[in-house]
Amino acid sequence: MSATTEPLLAARDLVKAHGRTDALRGASAELHAGEVLAVTGPSGSGKSTLLHCMAGILRPDGGSVHYEGLRLDTCTEDRLSALRRTDFGVVFQFGQLIPELTLTDNVALPLMLAGTSRREARARAGEWLGRFGVGDRADARPGELSGGQAQRGALARALVTGPRVVFADEPTGALDSLAGEQVMTELVSAARASGAAVLLVTHDARVAAYADREIRLADGRAAVTEGAV
Amino acid sequence: MTDDVKLAWLFTRGSERREWWRFGLTAVGAFCAAGFAAAAAALASLRGGVYRIPYAEGLFDRPGERAGVVLALLLLLIPTLGFLGQCARIGAVHRDRRMAGLRLAGASPLRVRRIAALETGLACLAGAVPAALVVGAAVLGVGAPPALLWAAVASAVLLVPVAGALVSVVALRRVVASPLGGVRRERRTAGRGTALTGVAVVGGAILLGILGVAYAGRLGLDAPLVLFVAFLLVGLGAVWVSGSFARLTGRRLAGRAENPAVLIAAERLRDDPWAAARTHAAVLLLTVVATGYTGVRQALMDDLLAAGSYPPESLDFYVTGLDLTAAAVGIGLLITLAAVAVGAAEGIAARRQGLAGQVAAGVPRRVLSRALLLETALPLAPAVALAAVGGLAIGTFYATAVGGGLTLPWTALPVPFAVYGTCLLAAATAMPLLRRTVRPTELRHD
Amino acid sequence: MSTRHILLGLLSSGPSHGYDLKRRHDERFPQARPLAYGQVYTTLQRLVRDALAEVEGTDSDGGPERTVYRATEDGERELARWAGETAPPAPFVANEIFAKVVVAILSGGDPAAYLLRQRDAHMARMRELTKVKTTPGADLATVLSADYALSHLDADLRWMTTTADRLSTLTAEVTAR
């Protein structure tokens, strides 16, 4: 990962307010192809807001987000939705699985949205669930899964479309430490195997240690960038 | 007890906007319910005899027509109660959490029940009292009424808050039992058996209605009351039928859906078929009544105009009666549509965190709103069709009886379609909420 | 850390010579500081002196001649006693980072900048250890010893974060005395 190559995703001088509180005050970050970047900082430092802006989920009030020559901050909502289906994958602390759908259907959903037939989508979803060790829970619904199993399902859903960037917001936040370590190991190794870059938001140094590089946010600004390996 | 009243008031005042919606809409529902009930009670208390009541071309003067009006008012109570039931669900997640919090803080189950009952009871009272004033004013406009009438009105007005309080206690039974609240939804198992029960209840109710009309006089029963019970049973049966349809449709479609929106809607229906069924009962009842009414009106009007044997005043009397019935059906439709819209809006609000997650993950809002509409549309279609057949049967039966020879009241045909269409429109009015409430800020973990 | 008990423990699985003991130690305890051969030799001599181990004989095996040791019965008893005994939880608080912060305050240095640099160094080491343990095919001993170090580094980091937030109070307290 040499610093001379163009970044895959770049945020510059982002400004974003939630009501009267400023979440971001000129934060910048660059994500290169295939790297794992951790965004850390105390709670309220704007980590999640930075991730939401870079994933095109939130529109920043100021600054720009570039993804491969495309300006995400001025893009249409439809284009952004399409991008999130094809090029991006997201993993949150919880809640990205639809409670009424089986695990397989949850993972198959992004493929079906892209026009893949149900049978084909379910077959590929099954493969990914097997890869993450939850193939035997394929027909269970999220409410019947342990936290670790549900997060593995979420990883499968994020990676099934072969995204170029995976956005992970406190992916281990609801897990005990062993399950958290396992989910992180699987996320990073699967992303490396498929060449996806990962933007990882966490307050936990042990989770951040899975990254190649770290950006620390304080008061809505990227205070320190460190640690290219 | 005063402490509980204070607590209930504190909770109501400190609660967020969504709960104010519940309070406000519950009061509106209670206003309608108490109004209909009080008016019905006032009219029913005039036993026998002919009175001069200067409303609606003298429609209230004679006992025969009064019975019809009482029935119409009682029938209006059914969609109103359905609407009240929907209102109780607005912000229910928050209320449940608060009640569970009270239990954790050491309140006894009895106390929590009392506070919950007081909250709802107060909202209902806030609606019922103005309704009593309106009815009272209308009665005084006629003249000095007997004491029995006042007693009837007062009991009808008091009954609404009491019923509301009881319903909220029943709704909270699972939350109250455990301080951790009703976090896990129990899976209710219902299969073909309940569907058959539903059909049986509907059939029995219709039979009861026919028998009631034919023999009520001989048995000394009030025909309106028997018919009201019959329609209430039809409504209950309709919940069953609609719920079973929802479950069946959900199961069938979930297995083979190719479209993501259909898949999501089908799995939701399979998971909780009764959520939709509660509102649908009122819709189905309304479809039966509206279709039947349209058929009867056509036949009656043809008869009135063609025969020429009625003097103009008497014609006015009948037309006013029909128009009033039409107005009642229209009010019923409005209330039902409001319930459908509230139900759809609450469905979105309660799931907004999950929906926000889907939007963030790239599921287009289009797909989600289509899924939400399908949740209403899928189970409603067969149920409305069934109800339309029932209504048409009534209309045809009446028209044939009046006209001699089989007559199909063709004007009734578009009615079920209109009901179905307006219901979908009502559900669609909740869709802007998807854009407004389903935002990434919901994803922030605190 | 008691090197003599660890060597006794390795001997309890069968007689062995000094070089073999060093190799098995480094293998069994990855990420630990590797044993120096000289240290192995002097420790073995002391074990013999205390009658916890004895010389079994010599073994040449084609190469240079090596002394083979084995544990005595006393040695086995001592080993069992030691293994069952709890380790004293942090009897003395030896915190080099804290000492450096206090010294920086006393000498008018910049403790905040120091803490940031220390944090970066800790993070870099944590990333390194995480790489080691997530390398495909890493055995459980490697994972567990890396986890042990990671937990301690993480604890240091948390301590540094709370200390950095309270530096002004600490400075007032240190300079007042």
UniProtKB/TrEMBL annotation, chain A:
<keyword id="KW-0813">Transport</keyword>
<dbReference type="InterPro" id="IPR015854">
    <property type="entry name" value="ABC_transpr_LolD-like"/>
</dbReference>
<feature type="domain" description="ABC transporter">
    <location>
        <begin position="9"/>
        <end position="227"/>
    </location>
</feature>
<dbReference type="InterPro" id="IPR027417">
    <property type="entry name" value="P-loop_NTPase"/>
</dbReference>
<dbReference type="GO" id="GO:0005524">
    <property type="term" value="F:ATP binding"/>
</dbReference>
<dbReference type="InterPro" id="IPR003593">
    <property type="entry name" value="AAA+_ATPase"/>
</dbReference>
<dbReference type="InterPro" id="IPR017911">
    <property type="entry name" value="MacB-like_ATP-bd"/>
</dbReference>
<dbReference type="InterPro" id="IPR003439">
    <property type="entry name" value="ABC_transporter-like_ATP-bd"/>
</dbReference>
<protein>
    <submittedName>
        <fullName>ABC transporter ATP-binding protein</fullName>
    </submittedName>
</protein>
<keyword id="KW-0067">ATP-binding</keyword>
<keyword id="KW-0547">Nucleotide-binding</keyword>
<dbReference type="Pfam" id="PF00005">
    <property type="entry name" value="ABC_tran"/>
</dbReference>
TrEMBL record, chain C:
<dbReference type="InterPro" id="IPR036388">
    <property type="entry name" value="WH-like_DNA-bd_sf"/>
</dbReference>
<dbReference type="InterPro" id="IPR005149">
    <property type="entry name" value="Tscrpt_reg_PadR_N"/>
</dbReference>
<dbReference type="InterPro" id="IPR036390">
    <property type="entry name" value="WH_DNA-bd_sf"/>
</dbReference>
<dbReference type="Pfam" id="PF03551">
    <property type="entry name" value="PadR"/>
</dbReference>
<protein>
    <submittedName>
        <fullName>Helix-turn-helix transcriptional regulator</fullName>
    </submittedName>
</protein>
<feature type="domain" description="Transcription regulator PadR N-terminal">
    <location>
        <begin position="7"/>
        <end position="80"/>
    </location>
</feature>
